[in-house]
């Protein structure tokens, strides 16, 4: 198991000491997974640092989990030992509300159980995530990893991938449409690959001309520099959909004029208070601002199958677990192309 | 014609003098209308006061126009002298863009021509509105006023009515849905009547307990006091759609938690900068914020027919034209139930 002591520097007021996180026994509906790879998400850093004030230490982050089944409970039907599997951002939901009934566990009205940091009956009283040798997850929340996907590079599909895929699917992206992906980081680089694979004209929208070449390599048809007022005006009313992956609070009004009548900008990054909202572009073009949160289990499996069919994985930097703190610093400085993944074989 | 001198007090720096506004000759595609009634919209006041900095004086406001055809051009097919007709917020559009082709002239990509204050080939170089004895409008932009609608009380349907109707229709409001109408003014009272007539469970959402009885009379099934935190919490995740008719800048976050997953709040009042947008309720429930602007000509005709079928008109206070300035002051103080309409027979 992974020691959480390396996070102590982030939270001087919270006493942390090295410890082992025990996993629950394998119940009849559970799947025990040997974790091979775990992606590093910005959320991990926020939680490790207690940015949102809700972290309970000790905590093991990690919700981009890929591994192999070690053991299954007596009633598990879909999985068998040795099978390649994956786990994403949540490991429980009520199963009975309208959202769960509609395969949208991520919007469970009674509250889902996050892969780490949610109260649970697990040892220690909270779920613990994927920076670890193993995890025990209820069958419903385990995904099958399709053949042909590199397991390390597939790990970020479980959060960055599905967070981009779900809104693109929900808003019906396909051939004949123009999609803008705003921001080229972990989420944005998946957005470009997926929108392109879905057949849309895909435009990378970034403040950074230095990112243009890489955006084109990832599948963008064009690059639009959002600080270039003339270029932005020339693209007014051109977009069916904007996937906004910027992680920090910002001014949405910069982008709204790019949308066609009835177009939607979907926010998947900057959660919380942002800038003042100017309703003029909304009212004058029946434009929409929406948000979206990861995706349901059924949809996540569809996404993995789609990625296998289209040979899509994340661009990653594979690191040994000892480099986690360095990776956090680099991630904070946007110095990663485009996702760190921990090789769990390096965890003693 | 109406003297604009009474607006001089609103704009001391703009020299105004009493004058007559001439109308253009009746062209082959034009309909000349004797105006009987004209509703008073908040927009009229904003333009009269030059609140948006774009008013060009002299200006005749008024875009909730009801009257009878006096004369028609040689090529006019749908109208004949004596027929009851109506004119709404715009009287021209390009006719060729994607929006116009889709019967959404209000989102014309080349710019519609407003009923008053838009540059035009009309005498004086600008269109002039309905606080007037007559108007000349191209046939495409003239509505037929169905039998059975009181003409004075029907006038506000041309702006307040269609502004509420169009989003309710666009978002598919009907039986089995729960709709909240936020704010009980000219727009809101039409929203309640229309949502109720479309078969939705209709909830008036207001800060003002004093408005509850009137909201129920207008067709609301329930009243929700938005300053009552307990009541608001009890209604969380209950609404399919919110029609937000508040006219002044405000905080949308108050209302977003009321929406179900995939629900939409549509802004039809507060155009321009509002409060900071908190994206949390958007992301955590795939909720949407949208805007909507009046409605297209085809849809406006549908709305008039719907109102005739359901015996819906506006609640109005009919005033002689001499009381316009008093009406403006009362409207600014929200002291009208729910729309002033000018009886144009009182204009000398």
What secondary-structure arrangement, pairings included, does this model have?
The structure is a homodimer of 348-residue chains.
Chain A: E1 30-39, H1 42-48, E2 65-72, E3 84-87, E4 90-92, H2 98-101, E5 113-114, E6 134-138, E7 143-144, H3 151-154, H4 160-170, E8 178-182, H5 186-197, E9 201-206, H6 212-218, E10 222-225, H7 229-234, E11 239-244, H8 253-256, E12 259-267, E13 273-278, H9 280-283, E14 288-291, H10 297-309, E15 316-320, H11 324-332, E16 339-343
Parallel strand pairs in A: 8-9, 8-11, 9-10, 11-12, 12-14, 15-16
Antiparallel strand pairs in A: 1-2, 1-6, 1-16, 2-3, 3-7, 4-5
Explain how this protein is built.
2 copies of one chain form a homodimer. With 348 residues, the first copy, chain A, is of the alpha/beta class. Helix content of chain A is 23%, strand content 24%. Chain A has helices at 42-48, 98-101, 151-154, 160-170, 186-197, 212-218, 229-234, 253-256, 280-283, 297-309, 324-332, and strands spanning 30-39, 65-72, 84-87, 90-92, 113-114, 134-138, 143-144, 178-182, 201-206, 222-225, 239-244, 259-267, 273-278, 288-291, 316-320, 339-343. In chain A, strands 1, 2, 3, 6, 7, 15 and 16 form a 7-stranded mixed β-sheet that branches. Chain A has a 6-stranded parallel β-sheet with strand order 10-9-8-11-12-14, with helices on one face. In chain A, helix 11 (324-332) links the parallel strand 15 (316-320) and strand 16. The radius of gyration of chain A is 20 Å and the shape is globular. The first copy, chain A, starts with 29 loop residues before the first strand and ends in a 5-residue tail after the last strand. The interface between A and B is large, with 37 and 37 residues. Strand 14 (288-291) of chain A pairs antiparallel with strand 14 (288-291) of chain B, so a sheet runs across the interface.
């Amino acid at each position: 198991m992974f020691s959480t002591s390396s996070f102590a520097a982030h939270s001087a007021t919270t006493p942390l000491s090295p410890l082992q996180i025990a996993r629950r026994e394998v119940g009849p509906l559970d799947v025990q997974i040997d974790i091979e790879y775990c992606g590093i998400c910005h959320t991990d850093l926020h939680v490790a640092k207690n940015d949102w004030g809700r972290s309970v230490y000790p905590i093991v982050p990690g919700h981009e989990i890929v591994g192999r089944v070690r053991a299954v409970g007596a009633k598990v039907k879909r999985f068998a030992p040795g099978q390649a599997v994956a786990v994403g951002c949540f490991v429980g939901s009520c199963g009975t509300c309208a959202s769960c009934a509609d395969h949208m566990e991520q919007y469970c009205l009674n509250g889902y159980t996050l892969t780490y940091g949610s109260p649970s009956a697990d040892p220690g009283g909270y779920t613990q995530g994927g920076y670890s040798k193993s995890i025990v997850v209820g069958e419903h929340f385990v995904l099958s990893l399709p053949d042909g996907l590199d397991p390390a590079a597939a790990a970020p599909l479980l959060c960055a991938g599905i967070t981009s895929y779900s809104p693109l699917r929900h808003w019906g992206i396909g051939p004949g449409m123009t999609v803008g992906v705003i921001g080229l980081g972990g989420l944005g680089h998946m957005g470009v690959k997926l929108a392109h694979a879905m057949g849309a004209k895909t435009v990378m929208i970034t403040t950074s001309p230095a990112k243009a070449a890489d955006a084109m390599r990832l599948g963008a048809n064009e690059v639009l520099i959002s600080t270039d007022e003339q270029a932005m005006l020339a693209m007014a009313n051109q977009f069916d959909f904007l996937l906004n992956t910027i992680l920090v609070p910002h001014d949405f009004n910069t982008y709204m004029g790019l949308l066609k009548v009835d177009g939607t900008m979907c926010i998947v990054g900057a959660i919380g208070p942002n800038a003042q909202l100017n309703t003029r572009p909304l009212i004058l073009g029946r434009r929409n601002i929406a948000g979206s949160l990861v995706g349901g289990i059924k949809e996540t499996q569809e996404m993995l199958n789609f990625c296998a069919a289209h040979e899509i994985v994340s661009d990653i930097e594979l690191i040994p677990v000892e480099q986690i703190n360095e990776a956090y610093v680099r991630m904070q400085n946007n110095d990663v192309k485009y996702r760190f993944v921990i090789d769990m074989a390096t965890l003693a």
